[in-house]
Amino acid sequence: MATQQDAGGVPFSIAHDMRQFRLLELPAELLALLDAPDPPLLSMKSQAPSSAKPAYVVLCTPTSTFQLRQVQTSNTVLITQPTLEAHDSDIPVPTTRAMATCTTTLELHPADGTPIESLTELLPLYHIVDDEVDASGNGKSKDGVFRDIPFSDGQCNRVWQDMMAFEFAGSCWRPSANTLIQVWRSINQAAVADGIKLDKQFLTEDLMRAVDEDAHPADLVLAILMRLNTETESNNGPWSCLDCTKTVSFVGTALLDAKIGLSDYATTDFIESWKDCLPEVWRNETNLKAIDAAYSLPSPSTIRSKKSLDTAKADAAPKAGSQRKWHEKFGRARKK
């Protein structure tokens, strides 16, 4: 019903059926993105429903994540829209109509943390033991996994690349340390056999073709190469060139992690194994400073990984269900 107005006033009315609205208060950085000539797509995400953890919705840009916080307001906030109204046989006149009230506002705050925990939980371990694969898949694509993680796709993808995660046989995986070492040895041996210098620019496809004889998943081989590429090489281009510092640290860390739960390395034996896993040109780069955050010295003559034994046991624990079926499937794939 329209309120009484003085001459020259703006007619105002309140709708009989008020609608429910939430106002979203945008931070300056997000407002700037939306005002840009080519604004990004925004999305709402949350983790998959679970009785163990509550699921909270977040707002994501392609690269950032914002938590939503509901704030009560004591002010009367009305959402209005212009309309034409007429009473009885009067001529319709322009009117401002209140169509909704807002008692709360949604504020956006940058989200803390990273997707590491979520990806570790959602990606099963791809573990190679005695040239056989011991694994049980999740039946999800990369996009399917990202949909259940309350972080932006850009943040998820950075952790995915750091983990050297990959897609294979209708599932997504994260490789165990033992798998990483075995696949890396295949990469290094294939490079030596084909005369490919890993410290120089080479065609990624040439090395992939050489490694293919060992029947490792192609996406896993590519994930390792992308992880170890120099900063100047594009991960989307046809060329690769491995970074010395990244590669030396990666190999040393993976060797130590693969021994978690087993007897400690003698430090001298570890150094020799580390050298043997590297291209000849980088053998002399095996200095413990290169893996400073990854090892501990339980005695003057032994070395071990700093990672928790409990984490290793959880990773290595077989999952119930289709373990044998996947084991046989991967076994056949590797023998083709």
TrEMBL record:
One cellular component (GO) term of this entry: chromosome, centromeric region
Name listed for the protein in its UniProt record: Sister chromatid cohesion protein-like protein Dcc1
InterPro entries, A to Z: Dcc1 (IPR019128)
Native organism taxonomy: Eukaryota, Fungi, Dikarya, Ascomycota, Pezizomycotina
ATP-binding listed as a keyword: no
Annotated region described as Disordered, given as residue ranges: 300-336
Composition skew (Basic residues), residue ranges: 322-336
A UniProt-annotated Pfam family: Dcc1
Protein family per UniProt: Belongs to the DCC1 family.
BP GO terms, sorted: DNA replication; maintenance of mitotic sister chromatid cohesion
Keywords: DNA replication
